[in-house]
Specification:
mainly alpha; 9 helices
Length: 200
């Protein structure tokens, strides 16, 4: 589901428009979707008359790149007198400062605690500490996998209930999936150590 959401821009070519609080003019749509996005490399000088909506075009361009996975960070340099205006418009119209909810942070913390336990267990196995069982690592890995599946289902429910945007949902699941990969890594290391010990 997260992968489907991540590819949403393929099915909706004007995704940034439909997920922002704006009503763009035709020349803004043309500039962003017909001239800027199709071209590589993505380097442009966007120059137009005052009041032509350069902020809207910039916001659309940035949001589309973020949702397509082509941009993770963006530095906007503006005259000091316009900094607050840019920040306010990009946040209010494009929701570019959206963050994880407290519930999401809490769930990520729980997932990381499981990963921390798995890493401690891995170190204990590698150091051959007494009363340490390699099977405990598998148990923790199963817990991590089960928790990831639960978070995936909850994420879909939260997106459908509009508790947060699908962009945030995708980033959130990226963090969760990376934690799950760490659990897989721990199991691989423990299994390799056990096999090496048996062969030795």
């Amino acid at each position: 589901e997260a992968y489907r959401i991540h590819l949403a821009h393929i099915f909706d070519p004007y995704l940034a428009v439909h997920t922002s609080s704006i009503d763009p003019l035709p020349h803004q749509i043309s500039a962003v979707y017909e001239k800027m996005l199709p071209r590589q490399p993505l380097r442009f000088v966007l120059a137009d008359d005052p009041g032509a909506g350069k902020t809207i075009m910039t916001g659309l361009f940035i949001k589309e790149l973020i949702m397509r996975g082509d941009m993770k960070r963006c530095l906007i340099v503006s005259p000091g007198s316009l900094a607050e205006q840019w920040q306010d418009e990009l946040n209010r119209k494009f929701h570019l400062e959206e963050d994880f909810t407290e519930e999401q942070y809490s769930r990520i913390e729980n997932m990381m605690k499981l990963c921390d336990q798995a890493l401690v267990q891995m170190v204990d196995v590698i150091e051959d500490k007494p009363h340490t069982k390699a099977s405990n690592t598998m148990t923790l890995e199963f817990e991590i996998n089960d928790y990831r599946k639960m978070l995936k289902d909850l994420n879909i429910e939260d997106i459908n209930a509009q508790r947060y945007s699908y962009q945030i949902g995708v980033h959130y699941m990226d963090v969760v999936n990376d934690c799950e990969k760490l659990g897989d890594y721990v199991v691989n290391v423990v299994e390799a150590h056990v096999n090496h010990r048996l062969l030795g």
